[in-house]
Amino acid sequence: MVPPRIPPGGRRELGLIGWLFCKLASRIAGVPEMHLFTVFAQHRRMFWTWAPFGWVLLRRGRLPGRDTEVVILRVGRVRNSEYELQQHRRIALQRGVDLQTQAAVFAWPAADRLSARHQAMLTGVDELLTTRAMSDETWQRLAGYLDRRQLMEFVMLVGQYDALAMWLNTLGVPMDYPD
To answer: Any idea where the Carboxymuconolactone decarboxylase-like domain is (predicted)?
Structure first.
């Protein structure tokens, strides 16, 4: 992992509202500091634009939470984003993705424990990450499980967490939980 290139900020770097937001987020997560936020919020305009978008994809989207976490875990695994994986392994458990399913997501395509729905989703994730597009065959498979808005959201979810993984890995954002 890259050492922190931009260290987490404090009240001065984050501004009062950003600092309070980060403190509240840390308390909710049960960690001393949410480093994703204390680094990101140093670019206030970008952070306050991104935060609602990320929240919608994570908690208010059209995809069921279990599907959202399967997608995020796969992106985190393919992109070697330890920060993303550390956060979303925990969230996935809360959203019904047990450890065996998580292991199958990480082992994909060599795993056979996944539902046909999740196999189609992981095929879509891998295609998007590899080719930046999706084949007609995979699109049709996914369309058998997802409606039009869910399909649009699926592609955006993969793109959002791909970009976030790149950002986390490049900036060397420190882990939140001691392992």
So the answer is: 46-122
Give the CATH class of 65-170: mainly alpha
- Cβ–Cβ under 8 Å, residues 36 and 83: yes
Residue-wise pLDDT tens digits, 118-174: 999 999 999 999 999 999 999 999 999 999 999 999 999 999 999 999 999 999 999
What would the mean pLDDT of 40-55 be, rounded to a whole number?
Answer: 97
pLDDT tens-digit series, residues 85-104 = 999 999 999 999 999 999 99
Average pLDDT over the chain reads 96
